[in-house]
Amino acid sequence: MPATDAFVQAQDVEVEDLGGGIKRQILGHDDNLMIVRVWFEEGSIGYVHKHPHTQVSYVESGEFEVQVDGQKKLLKAGDSFYIAPHLEHGAVCKKAGVLLDTFSPYREDFLNN
Hints:
Elements: E1 16-19, E2 22-29, E3 34-40, E4 45-49, E5 54-68, E6 71-76, E7 80-83, E8 89-104, H1 108-111
């Protein structure tokens, strides 16, 4: 998979509506790393799931009840969470906000929709 350009301007990148009050924008990637901005409306749910990728997410804004491997924590702007490969995780948006999700390796499934 070819990498994105060295510079990515958000205004030039499509925002994908995933439904259920969630939108995402892929801001950059190569075969080993991907960063994605995800908008959540209040009450929207990132349902519990798992994948083979390592993930670190940063709460840019809002408030999220995040579940990782059965543990729940309320996270606010400036907080982050780590997800090891194959761990179940999900989030409920308590106050509208944005997550910056990073994945290693890149999420091929995000590019092939």
